[in-house]
């Protein structure tokens, strides 16, 4: 484990990021900790907490996942994907909004779900599951509004200025939606063990996490046809995150949370994206290495 930690820290340094990581074998409890209890800005990773709360309410009969919701174009939360980028009105079920929220990180879909579920209900869900360092401060629209306000009159162009980025409330865990890597792997493990919701709803959560379209972060570390990666990304200026579960054909399953921050303010951060997969692979390989037999074998062989 010591060698793996050294290699993970070296990978973060080579990518020019400050990285925090926690990885755990969901079944044995073996774990690897690289700053796992440091507070981090969750960004869109917090949509996972909302998804679990949505299914908790559905299991309790508080809402019906097939309930239809109107999404007029006026007043939608902004974003580059899903409803947030569409021009016309739409009508979708709660479960299809959840699909858009998780697969393409649709901010508008997420805030429509938050309007139905409630921000405090999300916090009650995370508290019930023992995620003592996880808290939702605001909706995704409100988060984006703080960035716009803090950026000042220069607007989006000013986010290239490190001095402007340094004052963003959205990047301060004390003032925005936050968690720790350990809390996030605890949540993922609870979902995979059907402890977060009933088995029916746990399966639905796992399904939608497996439909995420982005292959350039966590999944990039596991380029094998027989290894399944399900996860949720999160991005803000200088921040690139992903949490997820890696499942091997021998039954091994590993929850991994990687949160990174870089001093670079460019919108594209390929090195920060790629190191999430690199660090996750190093962590999972370390968790698998002590195990004898086929479970330690290279996937795809």
Describe the structure.
The protein is an alpha+beta fold. The chain has a single domain (1-288), classed as Beta-lactamase, CATH 3.40.710. Helices cover 39% and strands 18% of the residues. It is built from ten helices and nine strands. It has helices at 2-15, 47-59, 94-103, 107-117, 119-128, 140-151, 162-166, 181-192, 199-209, 270-288; strands at residues 17-25, 31-34, 40-41, 68-71, 90-93, 178-179, 228-236, 239-247, 253-262. A five-stranded antiparallel sheet has the order 2-1-9-8-7, sandwiched between helices. It has a two-stranded antiparallel ribbon with strand order 3-6. The protein has a two-stranded antiparallel sheet with strand order 4-5. Helix 2 crosses helix 4 and helix 2 (47-59) packs antiparallel against helix 9. The model is unreliable at 292-301 (pLDDT under 50).
Task: Spell out the key features of this protein.
301 residues, alpha+beta, Beta-lactamase, 5-stranded antiparallel β-sheet, 10 helices, 39% helix, globular, disordered C terminus, Beta-lactam_cat, beta-lactamase activity
């Amino acid at each position: 484990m010591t060698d793996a930690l050294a290699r993970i820290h070296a990978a973060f340094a080579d990518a020019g990021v400050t990285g925090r990581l926690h990885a755990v074998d969901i079944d044995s409890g073996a774990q690897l900790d690289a700053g796992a209890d440091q507070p981090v800005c969750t960004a869109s990773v917090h949509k996972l907490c909302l998804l679990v709360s949505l299914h908790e309410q559905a299991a309790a009969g508080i809402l019906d996942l097939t309930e239809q919701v109107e999404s007029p174009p006026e007043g939608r939360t902004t974003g580059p994907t899903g409803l947030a980028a569409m021009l016309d009105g739409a009508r979708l079920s709660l479960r299809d909004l959840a699909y858009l929220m998780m697969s393409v990180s649709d901010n508008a879909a997420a805030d429509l779900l938050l309007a139905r579920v409630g921000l405090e209900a999300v916090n009650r869900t995370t508290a019930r599951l023992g995620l003592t360092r996880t808290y939702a401060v605001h909706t995704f629209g409100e988060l984006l509004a703080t960035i716009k306000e803090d950026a000042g009159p220069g607007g989006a162009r000013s986010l290239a200025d490190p001095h402007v980025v340094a004052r963003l409330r959205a990047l301060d865990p004390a003032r925005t939606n936050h968690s720790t890597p350990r809390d996030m792997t605890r949540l993922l493990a609870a979902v995979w063990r059907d402890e977060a919701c009933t088995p029916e709803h746990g399966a639905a959560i796992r399904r939608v996490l497996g439909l995420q379209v982005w292959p350039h972060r966590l999944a990039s570390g596991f380029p094998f046809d027989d290894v399944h990666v399900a996860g949720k990304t999160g991005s803000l200026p200088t921040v690139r995150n992903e949490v997820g579960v890696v499942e091997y054909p021998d039954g091994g399953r590993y929850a991994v949370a990687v949160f990174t921050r870089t001093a670079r303010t460019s919108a594209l951060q390929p090195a920060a994206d790629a190191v999430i997969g690199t660090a996750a692979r190093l962590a999972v390989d370390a968790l698998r290495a002590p195990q004898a037999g086929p479970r330690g074998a290279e996937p795809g062989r």
